[in-house]
Amino acid sequence: MALGQSKPGLETLAYDQVQLGPGKLREQLMTQHKLFMGLEDDRLLKPFRQRAGLPAPGADMGGWYDDSADFHFDPKDLSTVNWHGYIPGHSFGQYVSGLSRYVAATGDEETRAKVRDLVVQYAETISPRFFAGYLLPAYTYDKIVIGLIDAYRYAGVEEARDALDKVTDAVLPSLPDKPLTRQERRQRPYSSEAEIWDEPYTLPENLFLAWRLGLGERYRTLAVRYLQDEALFDPLARGESPLAGRHAYSHVNALNSAIQAWYATGDEKYLRAARNGFDFVLQQSFATGGWGPNEQLIGPDDHETLLKTLTSTHNSFETPCGAYGHFKIARSLLQITKDPRYGDSMERVLYNTILGAKDTTPDGKTFYYSDYSDTASKFYRDELWPCCSGTFLQLAADYGISAYLREGRRIYVNLYIPSTLSTDIEGATVQIRQETRYPLDAQVNFLVTPGQAGQFSLMLRIPAWAGPASRILVNDRPAGVAARPGAFAELDRIWRAGDRVTLRLDITPRLEPLNAAHPEVVALLTGPLVLFPIGHSEIQMTRAQWLSVRRRGDGHWAASSPTGERVLKPFAFIDDEPYRLYGRLAES
């Protein structure tokens, strides 16, 4: 596999080069940061200390996080399920990771100190005793790895390096010899159904990262060991989908391992696998960009499952986890291919899923599933501190690095969000401030402030849905550059302090069918926003009636249906009222 390393065409900016402006994205980040800064170290460390036989002061966290014998899952009798103590300490690494990324973005010393304290105290608990009899050792080790990596690279915690070696030594006796599928795991002895759910096939992503950071050759060796070639990447590279029935989030997340394998080895198989795998996911996505109802992916020839789930489940999309994995793979493919459709996909998931998530509460109630059923509502998962409590913080911390990318003198604007980018181009400082209410408003404004006049390119992503009236202005005059849908528009010029760029996107309502087999089941979109009909009663209108939707004075949308006016809202504006995602297309 020693083919040579590969590099992406576009680079991400450092966390501290992008500052979020006022708006929902910054609010989510600040809320998540405040939540985890407020959790006592003793509570976060308690399950590790207990399993190490050390004094374990502090209150229990509750839910999945506790070290408890209460967990019980019998697939033959789901009425007896008890999730308490399911995966003790499972999300600790994600919390450390998210806080470390916050340090990288803000330089906040209080947060840096908390990260260091958590890592140092966690290191004192590490021993094989933690993983002995642990239901999902690979699952939790993977999250500890990214936590320690991020503490090391973003918060400057040198102790994280030794802690990573120590926990790797501790977990190895509990890991399988290869990246077992659930079907393969079932063929081996086990005492609990939950043991089948472990995810060793997600390990390579972060192990490759550890190796790339210079933390040891052993991590590259382990990463290669857990690449799921035969069952996943080989068929995907051939253009065949093995995804039907697979766990949704973990297998989309595994595509990020394929990306890291391509970086590490240069083997084009892994890049083909990542691209094809992501395409298979996009083909089975709802209009929101969400995927995996009941946490399962479907096959490319399955045209009925999505329709059936609109009446059979409320567990439509595992939101913080799914959005986190989606952002990572889409951002990587955008970096490698420079294809703006990956940015289109990111913004669709951003505005229609995670920005509508309920805030995690101080006691651990977590928004887990988005509900797309015909009788939908927003709800918290019953158990405290599930997996989505960790990925929510990581995802919010990554909003800034998802907005801009760079290639030499070219600055790519991927997400239109209130933000300020500060960087150097050929030794000169440049600041780009973005002000917008997009996608509620079709206009995006940029103020460009170079330290001195200089030439570089501003690359603006023009979404594939953008209409023909889209325009780009520089200093209130036509830029002379076409806003071509599905491409990056390049503004290459000598920039001077005070230069202004205005992007006006032509946003026209449109309908999207559930899939080709059900063109009569439609969602209404305006730009990247899905407009959800409020209420549970079925809505059936002609195409003209759907597309006559208009913005009301109160900021919501309305359409005139045969039964009267129907209010529609974006997901982020829905509170506790009932809603639905899809309606029906009536004959004209």
Spell out the blueprint of helices and strands.
Layout: E1 11-12, E2 18-20, H1 24-37, H2 41-51, H3 92-106, H4 109-123, H5 128-131, H6 137-154, H7 159-171, H8 182-186, H9 203-212, H10 217-225, H11 229-237, H12 248-265, H13 268-283, H14 305-312, E3 317-318, H15 319-337, H16 341-352, E4 369-370, H17 388-397, H18 399-403, E5 404-407, E6 410-413, E7 419-425, E8 428-436, E9 443-450, E10 454-462, E11 471-474, E12 477-478, E13 487-495, E14 499-504, E15 510-513, E16 521-526, E17 529-533, E18 540-541, H19 543-547, E19 550-551, E20 557-561, E21 564-569, E22 583-585
Structure report:
By secondary structure, the chain is α+β, with helices and mostly antiparallel strands. The chain contains 19 helices and 22 strands. Strands 15, 16, 17, 18, 19, 20, 21 and 22 form an eight-stranded mixed β-sheet that branches. Strands 2-7-8-9-14-11-12 form a seven-stranded antiparallel β-sheet. Helix 3 runs parallel beside helix 17. It starts with 10 loop residues before the first strand and ends with a strand. The model has no long low-confidence stretch (mean pLDDT 97).
